[in-house]
Amino acid sequence: MRKGFTLIELIVVIIVIGILATAAVPQYLKATEKARVAKAKSNLALIAHGEAMYYADNDTYIAGATSAAVVTALQNYVELGALNSDGDWSYAVTGGTTFTATATRAAGGSHAGQTITLNQAGTWGGSFVL
Questions:
Q1: Please, which of 18, 55, 80, 122 could form a disulfide with 71 given CB 3.0 to 4.6 Å?
Q2: How far is the C-alpha of 66 from the C-alpha of 35, rounded, in Å?
Q3: For the residues 45-54, what does the mean pLDDT come to?
Q4: Which residue did the predictor score with more confidence, 83 or 50?
């Protein structure tokens, strides 16, 4: 009586693992991208909250062309320190009598350059398609 596996059995197992991997990897990538989108939406909501508080004090909305400028302008209203270290998204705000906060997906990957926006009315928009 022989113990062990035949070459055919090993090949069948490798094929089954390959089939499972081809189904699992795209789902994993999609789930991680959804998590990145949720992070961006959460940060945009924080920016909008800060803008509302800033507007209550100053009767205008702030504008910031970079993540660092947004953090600096709103640091007295909300904690936005994570925006500067976010490697997945860059943030900007156009302000004045209205505002639009924009998260732009960083370079690399199939979603590079796509955006998510939120304005003072709470309307979401942008070009991001998952």
A1: 80
A2: 22
A3: 95
A4: 50
